[in-house]
């Protein structure tokens, strides 16, 4: 078959998928951030991202552009951050993931996890030192909670922190740490040997006690790097707002909500590609989109995407009113990652063999949704946390 016989074009392009007209509720601030990110994704991310993904290279020029666009720091007030509303923050996350999950995750680690931990729990001096530099991407951050032996049960983490004069000494191993091999500063969650409580510490990577080794061979989110970190007598500074494991959880509430938005972005990308493709691809003398079964499948995908959009809109409203809880964010993450996986799998199938080619984007989203499904609490863990809330029975600990 000649190349001209396969004129499937614009598969990465955004359609205006908003069947229930949720965009009519955006304020000018929200429109601004939404359109800035959308334009960046369409004009700068999609033309180049598959190559970075395939080679497992970091898209440095795109990561730097996020700083030019003023997106790092998201909803943090002051310290060089844009102070976005929860809805604007969600829209930025959605659009970045519509382009690429690795880039969306990079923003999530830099802003949502590392900067947010410092903004929420740091001293004034720590905030002044790190946040403006991180907003400009002059400094890169990471968030180290997971350990080789403790993922879902990170509450049982074994990394230790021992007071030493004015500072602290940390020992232990962390795994799966986004940016762990390129960061300047890492928010490390460790157990204070004195009181046995989990607390957060700022660990600078330019010291002998810190090693971060990139994990290779991933089949998902290949354009962001995670690392195994070894702390051997590493020096750290305590984040004074952290007194127990719950303080790590406070950071993760908002990032769980952004996971729901990220999953929506992946699903919209896949739905848009499937609709565009089905109108172009002719089989049995007609475009695929003209067959009843194909229409039924596309409409069911749209129904799922629309439901995800409504979940996200309500999440943002609740957060604005200060009423979003960890279980609300957990239910949204669970729902949206589960639905996104199904929508993307449908899209992949509707593109037939072309669905596995990176140039058509869907297969990249199919890989990348897997990591959102797993990180910041797997689907099952979200179900168990919400299950405990609605039944009163905790069903997951020992
Ligand atoms: C790409 C990527 C990026 C990441 N980035 C970071 C990061 O920046 N910082 C960080 O700290 N961590 C990060 N993580 C780690 C992530 O948060 C963990 O992978 C996640 O919490 C799950 O832990 P685990 O992989 O150890 O799986 P496990 O906890 O071993 O779970 C394996 C399976 O068992 C299920 N399971 C576990 N417990 C129960 C139970 N009680 N009942 C029923 N089922 C159960 C889980 O749902 C899952 O299906 C990242 C992970 C990935 C893949």
TrEMBL record:
<dbReference type="Pfam" id="PF02770">
    <property type="entry name" value="Acyl-CoA_dh_M"/>
</dbReference>
<keyword id="KW-0560">Oxidoreductase</keyword>
<dbReference type="InterPro" id="IPR006089">
    <property type="entry name" value="Acyl-CoA_DH_CS"/>
</dbReference>
<dbReference type="GO" id="GO:0006635">
    <property type="term" value="P:fatty acid beta-oxidation"/>
</dbReference>
<dbReference type="Pfam" id="PF00441">
    <property type="entry name" value="Acyl-CoA_dh_1"/>
</dbReference>
<dbReference type="InterPro" id="IPR006091">
    <property type="entry name" value="Acyl-CoA_Oxase/DH_mid-dom"/>
</dbReference>
<dbReference type="InterPro" id="IPR037069">
    <property type="entry name" value="AcylCoA_DH/ox_N_sf"/>
</dbReference>
<dbReference type="InterPro" id="IPR036250">
    <property type="entry name" value="AcylCo_DH-like_C"/>
</dbReference>
<feature type="domain" description="Acyl-CoA dehydrogenase/oxidase N-terminal">
    <location>
        <begin position="35"/>
        <end position="136"/>
    </location>
</feature>
<dbReference type="GO" id="GO:0050660">
    <property type="term" value="F:flavin adenine dinucleotide binding"/>
</dbReference>
<dbReference type="InterPro" id="IPR046373">
    <property type="entry name" value="Acyl-CoA_Oxase/DH_mid-dom_sf"/>
</dbReference>
<dbReference type="InterPro" id="IPR009100">
    <property type="entry name" value="AcylCoA_DH/oxidase_NM_dom_sf"/>
</dbReference>
<keyword id="KW-0274">FAD</keyword>
<dbReference type="Pfam" id="PF02771">
    <property type="entry name" value="Acyl-CoA_dh_N"/>
</dbReference>
<keyword id="KW-0285">Flavoprotein</keyword>
<comment type="similarity">
    <text>Belongs to the acyl-CoA dehydrogenase family.</text>
</comment>
<dbReference type="InterPro" id="IPR013786">
    <property type="entry name" value="AcylCoA_DH/ox_N"/>
</dbReference>
<feature type="domain" description="Acyl-CoA oxidase/dehydrogenase middle">
    <location>
        <begin position="142"/>
        <end position="224"/>
    </location>
</feature>
<protein>
    <submittedName>
        <fullName>Acyl-CoA dehydrogenase family protein</fullName>
    </submittedName>
</protein>
<dbReference type="GO" id="GO:0003995">
    <property type="term" value="F:acyl-CoA dehydrogenase activity"/>
</dbReference>
<dbReference type="InterPro" id="IPR009075">
    <property type="entry name" value="AcylCo_DH/oxidase_C"/>
</dbReference>
<feature type="domain" description="Acyl-CoA dehydrogenase/oxidase C-terminal">
    <location>
        <begin position="250"/>
        <end position="390"/>
    </location>
</feature>
<dbReference type="InterPro" id="IPR045008">
    <property type="entry name" value="ACX4-like"/>
</dbReference>
């Amino acid at each position: 078959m000649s190349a001209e016989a396969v004129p499937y074009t614009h598969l990465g392009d955004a359609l205006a998928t908003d069947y229930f007209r949720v965009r009519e509720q955006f304020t000018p601030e929200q429109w601004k951030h939404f359109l800035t990110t959308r334009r960046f994704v369409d004009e700068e991310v999609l033309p180049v991202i598959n190559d970075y993904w395939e080679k497992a290279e970091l898209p440095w020029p795109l990561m730097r552009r996020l700083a030019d666009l003023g997106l790092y720091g998201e909803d943090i007030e002051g310290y060089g951050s844009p102070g976005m509303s929860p809805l604007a923050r969600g829209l930025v996350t959605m659009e970045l993931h519509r382009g690429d999950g690795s880039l969306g995750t990079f923003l999530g680690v830099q802003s949502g996890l590392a900067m947010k931990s410092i903004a929420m729990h740091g001293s004034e001096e720590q905030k002044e030192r790190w946040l403006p530099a991180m907003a400009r991407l002059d400094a890169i951050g990471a968030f180290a909670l997971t350990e080789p032996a403790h993922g879902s049960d990170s509450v049982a983490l074994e990394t230790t922190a021992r007071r030493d004069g004015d500072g602290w000494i940390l020992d232990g191993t962390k795994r799966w740490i986004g940016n762990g091999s390129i960061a300047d500063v890492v928010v490390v969650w460790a157990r204070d040997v004195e009181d046995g409580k989990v607390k957060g510490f700022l660990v600078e990577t330019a010291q002998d006690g810190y090693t971060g080794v990139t994990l290779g061979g991933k089949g998902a989110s290949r354009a962001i790097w995670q690392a195994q970190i070894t702390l051997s007598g590493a020096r750290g500074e305590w984040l004074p707002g952290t007194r127990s494991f719950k303080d790590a959880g406070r950071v993760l509430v908002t990032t769980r909500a952004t996971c729901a938005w990220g999953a929506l972005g992946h699903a919209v990308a896949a739905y848009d590609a499937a609709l565009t493709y089905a109108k172009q691809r002719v089989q049995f003398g007609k475009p695929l989109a003209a067959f009843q079964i194909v229409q039924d499948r596309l409409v069911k995908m749209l129904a799922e995407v629309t439901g995800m959009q409504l979940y996200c809109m309500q999440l943002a409203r609740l957060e604005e009113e200060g009423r979003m809880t960890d279980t609300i964010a957990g239910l949204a993450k669970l729902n949206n990652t589960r639905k996104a996986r199904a929508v993307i799998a449908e899209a992949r199938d509707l593109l037939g063999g072309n669905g596995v080619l990176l140039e058509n984007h869907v297969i990249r989203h199919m890989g990348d949704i897997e990591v959102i499904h797993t990180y910041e609490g797997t689907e099952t863990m979200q179900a168990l946390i919400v299950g405990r809330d609605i039944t009163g029975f905790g069903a997951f600990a020992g």
